[in-house]
Specification:
Blueprint: H1 2-23, E1 33-37, E2 43-50, E3 54-60, E4 63-69, E5 78-84, E6 88-89, H2 93-100, E7 112-124, E8 127-136, E9 139-154, E10 160-171, E11 190-204
Antiparallel strand pairs: 1-4, 1-11, 2-3, 2-11, 3-6, 4-5, 5-7, 7-8, 8-9, 9-10, 10-11
Length: 207
């Protein structure tokens, strides 16, 4: 009888072990992918109203950024972006110098604008909502941007590229860019609201 019990236990032991191991949760492996900015195929543009009747446009020529994504569709990705304020260009040297002065950016003391994302969520299709902290001068505020994901492709040289277009608005005076003058009719020479358009292409970092 004792031998029979031992033999029965030995015969059942593989099934018992299998059942027990099946109950244990298996941790899913997640590997975040890092993407680096392709500056030669990216651009940072802004516009602001002038004399109420028109708009003046400008760009920043020097900038950099990274994306770290836990998924292939970039949902919940983390984004960091920096802009060199001294690279501002409105096709007018005198105006550019004024924008770099303490009336606006004070580029000598605060040479960089910085953005760090706090949320990047897919809304629908290729549309995403981006939220984060934007620092201009010594002021940091939360901003929201609308993002269109252009897709991901492999270029002729074997690099995997992803494209995005981000748009949004900020009030410049909330960030300490407080210079103001008015026309004879009482309208602002330079508007408070700044429109941003950021077109970027990222390359997947190779292992």
């Amino acid at each position: 009888m004792k031998k029979l019990l031992i033999l029965s236990a030995m015969a059942l032991s593989p099934y018992i072990m299998t059942a027990q191991s099946a109950k244990k949760p298996v941790a899913a492996a997640t590997t975040a992918t890092k993407w680096n900015l392709d500056r030669s195929h990216s651009g940072v543009k802004f516009s602001v109203s002038h004399l109420v009747i028109s708009e003046t446009e400008g760009t920043f020529k020097v900038f950099d950024g990274t994306v770290t994504s836990p998924s292939t569709d970039f949902n919940n990705a983390s984004i960091n972006f920096n802009v060199d304020v001294n690279s501002i260009n409105t096709d007018d040297d005198k105006r550019d110098g004024h924008l770099k002065s303490d009336d606006f950016f004070n580029a000598e003391k605060y040479p960089a604008m910085k953005f760090t994302s706090t949320s990047f969520k897919k809304v629908k299709g290729n549309q995403y909502a981006l939220e984060g902290n934007l620092t201009i001068r010594d002021v940091t505020k939360k901003v929201k941007l609308n993002v269109v994901y252009g897709g991901t492709v492999k270029d002729p040289w074997g690099n995997i590229k992803a494209g995005f277009k981000a748009t949004g608005k900020i009030n410049r005076k909330e960030f300490g860019l407080k210079w103001g003058a008015v026309t004879e009719a009482g309208g602002a020479v330079v508007g408070d609201e700044v429109n941003m358009e950021i077109k970027v292409e990222f390359a997947q970092q190779k292992a």
